[in-house]
């Protein structure tokens, strides 16, 4: 009964990395071009939850992420593109959801445990409440589909739990049951230095990831130095089962080339990494260089980026504000 509507977001912290591109933005573009109604946010309010952000750096990262969205093919004529802090409805709904979500639900969030580390007492209240704000980001648009990487699955499930409890407590069918869309070969791109950790823009090791701002030489060098084992590539995907580093490079190749991992191995099975890595580097440079060139061009006119974001925020608020008004009415405000 809910109109299909796609929402997703990325935090403006550091530079966008290959996992964000393959697991998220590339799929945002595909959904946009499939003709679905698409809303893509730069979640700057989430960006201050984990660490203090220098204001100038945060502003720069927000514009750079907007440039990345545009350079990757998001089109303001087809998608609503904006930053979260410019649409107050997100925080308004988050407060209501803070009162719907249970402490026990938030206690189970593995990302909080990862990000807070051993010293949870020192973590911000915002980091703890992050999934509740994320639920508000999604549900303030009544979004039905959320393309994300595998690491966000638990947060989208929490979003569904919050919607269900709100609907149940108030006796309404107001918020939809949102579906996470986690698809393709690159739903969890791993660190190039450690096959057990996901690639992340907040990893302290720059060598662990490929940034969309890296030049061709840097990309090639990071791939050449990626951790691998001494065996040649297997002929079939079963042979990747207990080889996380090899599997990761094959998955990256597949996602960049838009083929399946089996097709990658049909071509490269039996190859040594000494020949597969240069092939992967060439492919990565081929796909990423035009994006980084376009990002630099767009960053030359930040006023234009600000105009795109301001126009997007207005369109986003036009959807979110009536949903907040109705929520307040349901709650009794
Ligand atoms: P990061 O962990 O790099 O700071 P975010 O938390 O801002 O990234 O996530 C933005 C989007 O990118 C989310 O949809 C997330 O699931 C996706 N994503 C992040 N890292 C990866 C990865 N290594 N592989 C696939 N998708 C990822
Ligand atoms: Na669209």
UniProtKB/TrEMBL annotation:
Write the record's keywords in alphabetical order, separated by commas. Answer: Aminoacyl-tRNA synthetase, ATP-binding, Cytoplasm, Ligase, Nucleotide-binding, Protein biosynthesis
Q: Name one GO molecular function term.
A: tryptophan-tRNA ligase activity
Extract one GO cellular component term from the record.
Answer: cytosol
Q: What is its EC number?
A: 6.1.1.2
List the Pfam families: tRNA-synt_1b
Localization recorded for this chain is: Cytoplasm
Listed under GO biological process in this entry are: tryptophanyl-tRNA aminoacylation
Q: Which residues bind L-tryptophan?
A: 137
Q: Enumerate the residues binding ATP.
A: 11-13, 19-20, 149-151, 189, 198-202
Known catalysed reaction(s)?
tRNA(Trp) + L-tryptophan + ATP = L-tryptophyl-tRNA(Trp) + AMP + diphosphate + H(+)
Where, by residue number, is the motif 'KMSKS' region? 198-202
Q: How does it assemble?
A: Homodimer.
Q: Which NCBIfam families match?
A: trpS
Q: Which protein family is it in?
A: Belongs to the class-I aminoacyl-tRNA synthetase family.
The protein's job, in short, is: Catalyzes the attachment of tryptophan to tRNA(Trp).
- This chain belongs to the protein called Tryptophan--tRNA ligase
Q: Which organism is it from?
A: Pontivivens marinum
**Underlying gene:** trpS
